[in-house]
């Protein structure tokens, strides 16, 4: 073997293969939970579809990199054996590795990146998982390229091409939420039908037969409710929002118990207004609210249907009512989430189509009061204006949840969560740089401050820069593959002199002891390291603190 680090690379390749399969299968489970009514066929068939797609993606990545230098080295063949054993656990078709490999290389040209990653681009619940997929694919591609030593120029070019291809399909960047395209549920269902056709061809080409266990034991109502509340608690920040959701949950529990005891119950509007800037978790919380209502029997399904003005308002007279009704029909027995809802009513009041959509929505809320919950979301001040503009809205939407912008420390913890989910670590210097940059952007923010989307963009860019930085390193250890350095982080708009505070020691970071909640300040070099609390002597990792000037 020409690569002394080969065994480690092979182990990492096997792990990346498993991570890819786990991402596709867990994503299938998520879709089954959150939009079961829009999945053609059975849950089993959808899981098998996703398993087929992950196998096709693995083949595409492997062949794309191996073919770059027009040779199939012994090291790459061993990688291929691991891959083929994963795709065909019972043995390669025909029993001959060479014949199977020739078939794989020949048929791989017909595999399209867009088809293989389609679920993450077009299925609503998976939109936020695109960065995880990119991370895994980049890891796989780099490992194959390094299998037989330092990557050749052709392999480096292929690595760049793969990143660009995936980015074009999964990361369509937009500047603000006002222009963000929204994929509706019928399109998601159509996407599944397209995937079914594509995976049928994939199975025929590669003789793939997935046998995946799909459905586990059924959970009780209380167990499902506990899982939903765990999802809420796992979200970073949003303490006031969490408090309001728990209060709502406690109220519904009390109502249910009073009903069991034959006591009168109080009618309370379950419709909600979410006020907050983009990226503050409004859609995620709306999905949790739907699952909450579903688990408590308030709604029979609890699925979430997302839309905005374009999904409710038509361009011509007589079309808005039917269009709004169609969207409401999709959401029956679940939650209709209307983002940028303020755009339904123009400030001038001269918007007959928007007013028609609002009136149609109000009528359906009354007619289907036991089958529909509506969440209106958007910028805080503009949502206040919308609710005040119509007595019907103000009488039905009397609960407003305010989603505050994330602080620098919260943004850092979100970044840390993305790193943990994708097997990355961040150096202390990189943590300090990131937190200081987030602090500057937070202090100079406007209503378009990206919040969670800002973090996702920074993370994805860091992964791309990391991939470019290590591309020429011949010995690719796990540490090299998984460590994000300060030089990998770019936060556009932050002035150069702001970073000097890290060097001259004029900033520390406020951290909180996990044992006694005591807050203390530490220098940047202590980030990511274990420290001892002066109050209770507990040891904990100092990470993602709030920057404080000294």
Question: Which helices and strands occur, and which strands form pairs?
Answer:
Layout: H1 6-34, H2 43-66, H3 74-87, H4 97-107, H5 113-116, H6 118-122, H7 130-146, H8 153-170, H9 185-206, H10 221-234, H11 239-260, E1 272-276, H12 282-295, E2 304-307, H13 309-312, H14 320-331, E3 334-338, H15 352-367, E4 372-378, H16 380-388, H17 391-396, E5 400-403, H18 408-421, E6 425-426, H19 428-443, H20 452-470, H21 478-482, E7 483-484, H22 496-504, E8 507-512, E9 519-522, E10 529-532, E11 539-542, E12 546-549
Parallel strand pairs: 1-4, 1-5, 2-3, 3-4, 6-7
Antiparallel strand pairs: 8-9, 8-12, 10-11
Helix pairs in contact: 1-2, 1-3, 1-7, 2-3, 2-7, 2-8, 2-9, 7-8, 7-20, 10-12, 14-15, 18-19, 18-20
Q: Rg from C-alpha positions?
A: 26 Å
Low-confidence stretches: 172-186
Structural class: alpha/beta
- Main sheet: strand order: 2-3-4-1-5
Beta content? 5-15%
Mean pLDDT: 85
Tally the helices: what do you get?
22
Q: How many domain modules?
A: 3
> What is the helical fraction, as a range of percent?
55-70%
N- to C-terminal distance: 55 Å
How would you describe this structure to a colleague?
The chain is an alpha/beta fold and 550 residues long. The chain has helices spanning 6-34, 43-66, 74-87, 97-107, 113-116, 118-122, 130-146, 153-170, 185-206, 221-234, 239-260, 282-295, 309-312, 320-331, 352-367, 380-388, 391-396, 408-421, 428-443, 452-470, 478-482, 496-504; strands at residues 272-276, 304-307, 334-338, 372-378, 400-403, 425-426, 483-484, 507-512, 519-522, 529-532, 539-542, 546-549. It folds into 3 domains: 6-205, no CATH class; 238-403, 3-Layer(aba) Sandwich (Rossmann fold), CATH 3.40.50.300; 408-549, Orthogonal Bundle (Helicase, Ruva Protein, domain 3). The strands form 4 sheets. Strands 2-3-4-1-5 form a 5-stranded parallel β-sheet. Strand 8 and strand 9 (519-522) form a beta hairpin. It is globular and about 75 Å long.
């Amino acid at each position: 073997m020409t690569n002394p680090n080969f065994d480690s690379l092979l182990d990492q390749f096997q792990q990346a293969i498993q991570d890819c399969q786990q991402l596709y299968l867990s994503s299938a489970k998520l879709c089954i939970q959150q939009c079961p009514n829009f999945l053609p066929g059975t849950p089993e068939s959808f899981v098998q579809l996703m398993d087929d797609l992950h196998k096709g993606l693995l083949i595409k990545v492997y062949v794309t990199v191996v073919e770059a230098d027009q040779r199939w080295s012994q090291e790459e063949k061993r990688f291929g054996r691991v891959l083929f054993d994963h795709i065909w656990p019972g043995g390669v078709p025909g029993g001959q590795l060479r014949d199977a490999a020739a078939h794989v290389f020949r048929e791989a040209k017909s595999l399209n990146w867009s088809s293989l990653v389609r679920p993450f681009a077009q299925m609503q619940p998976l939109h936020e998982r695109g960065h995880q997929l990119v991370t895994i694919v980049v890891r796989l591609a780099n490992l194959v390229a390094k299998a037989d030593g330092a990557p050749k120029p052709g392999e480096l070019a292929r690595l760049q091409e793969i990143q660009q291809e995936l980015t074009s399909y999964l990361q369509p960047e937009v500047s603000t939420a006002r222009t963000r395209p929204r994929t509706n549920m019928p399109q998601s269902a159509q996407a599944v039908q397209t995937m079914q056709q594509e995976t049928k061809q994939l199975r025929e080409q590669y003789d793939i037969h997935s046998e995946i266990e799909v459905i586990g034991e059924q959970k009780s109502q209380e167990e499902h409710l506990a899982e939903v509340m765990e999802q809420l608690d796992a979200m970073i920040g949003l303490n006031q929002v969490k408090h309001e959701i728990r209060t709502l949950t406690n109220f519904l529990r009390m109502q249910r118990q009073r009903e069991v005891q034959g006591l009168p119950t109080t009618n309370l509007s379950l419709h909600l207004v979410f006020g907050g800037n983009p990226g503050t978790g409004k859609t995620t919380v709306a999905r949790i609210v739907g699952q909450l209502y579903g688990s408590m029997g308030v709604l029979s399904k609890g699925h979430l249907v997302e839309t905005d003005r374009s999904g409710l308002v038509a361009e011509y007279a007589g079309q808005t009512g039917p269009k709004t009704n169609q969207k409401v029909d999709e959401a029956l027995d679940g939650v209709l989430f209307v983002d940028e809802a303020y755009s339904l009513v123009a400030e001038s009041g001269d918007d007959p189509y928007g007013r028609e959509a609002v009136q149609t929505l109000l009528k359906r809320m009354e007619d289907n009061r036991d089958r529909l919950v509506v969440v209106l979301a958007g910028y805080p001040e503009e949502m206040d204006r919308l609710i005040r503009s119509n007595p019907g809205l103000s009488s039905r939407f009397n609960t407003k949840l305010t989603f505050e912008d994330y602080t620098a420390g919260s943004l850092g913890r979100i970044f840390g969560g993305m790193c943990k989910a994708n097997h990355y670590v961040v150096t202390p210097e990189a943590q300090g740089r990131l937190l200081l940059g987030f602090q500057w952007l937070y202090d100079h923010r406007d209503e378009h401050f990206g919040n969670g989307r800002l973090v996702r963009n920074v993370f994805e860019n860091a992964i791309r820069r990391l991939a470019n930085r290590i591309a020429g390193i011949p010995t690719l250890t796990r540490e090299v593959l998984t460590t994000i350095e300060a030089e990998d982080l770019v936060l556009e708009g932050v002035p150069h002199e702001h970073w000097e505070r890290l060097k001259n020691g004029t900033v520390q970071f406020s951290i909180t002891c996990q044992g006694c909640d005591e807050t203390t300040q530490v220098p940047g070099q202590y980030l990511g390291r274990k420290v001892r609390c002066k109050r209770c002597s507990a040891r904990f990792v100092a990470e993602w603190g709030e920057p404080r000037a000294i």
